[in-house]
Amino acid sequence: MWVRLVKSIFRRCALVVGLCLTLAACVTTTNAPEQRIDLAKAEATHIQAGLNYLRQRDKESARRHFLKALKLNSQSAGANNGIALVHQMEEEYELADQYYRKALSLDPDYALARNNYGVFLFRQERYKEAEEHLEIVAKDFTYGRRTIALISLGKTQLKLNKTTEAEKSFKQVLSINFRQPQAQLELADLYFQQKSYTNSKFYLDQFAKYSRQTPRSLWIGIRIERVFGNKDKEASYALALKNLHPYSQEYLEYKQSAE
């Protein structure tokens, strides 16, 4: 009798222990995905905070958040992109290049990092490399700033003397958003250089509908009206350039052309 009682107690204890282990396993399994989600959210929060600080040109606060994101995920493409931006702002170009390439090696489809790297390469006058990266971004229909990438691509193609390709890139921008003033101004300038003055004036007028005049747009306007012999309009553009941008390079060029 006592033997049966002892065996019964052991069986019950084993059942309780087994049940506890099963419940513990369930809790662990249930919490693991939630923990991963929380870490991913924290990583994304730090990256966004870092980018916000960069917009305020607070590089140290931005760096701190990007490093925190890397502590949460050592393979974070977003954090590497952010650190690249910090180094770029600090004119540490070799380090910036390294971090951009690290970000893209971790996530080749990361359009933001690829666009940033393309712009970085453009500023470094590495135009062929810049074109390769910007072409990839420009074909990414999911990228929210695709028109900006296309404008950067067009500018890069101009540096490579690919005027036909540049024209196509700028026009593609306008097919996406016909009110994009930067693409309109680029086309106005491009057509002026090609002596296609009617087209140049058309795009300059479109630019004026959606944007304030800039030294560049006013200088293009002066030269277009000079070609067409419209002295009143030329004088109007010249007066605006003098009053609004008296220390601009464009005003100096205008003064030299008027001598």
Tell me about this structure:
This protein has 259 residues and is an all-alpha fold. Among the domains are: 65 residues, Alpha Horseshoe (Serine Threonine Protein Phosphatase 5, Tetratricopeptide repeat); 65 residues, no CATH class. The chain contains 13 helices and no strands. The N terminus is likely disordered.
**What oligomeric state do these chains adopt?**
single chain
pLDDT average, as an integer?
Answer: 90
Architecture per CATH nomenclature, i.e. the level-2 architecture of the domain at 44-108: Alpha Horseshoe
**CATH topology annotation of the domain at 44-108:** Serine Threonine Protein Phosphatase 5, Tetratricopeptide repeat
Query: Ends: how far apart?
Result: 123 Å
- Extract low-pLDDT stretches: 1-30
Question: SSE order in H/E notation?
Answer: HHHHHHHHHHHHH
What is the percentage of strand-forming residues?
A: under 5%
Query: Any idea what the shape is?
Result: elongated
Q: In the CATH hierarchy, what is the superfamily of the domain at 44-108?
A: Tetratricopeptide repeat domain
Number of strands: 0
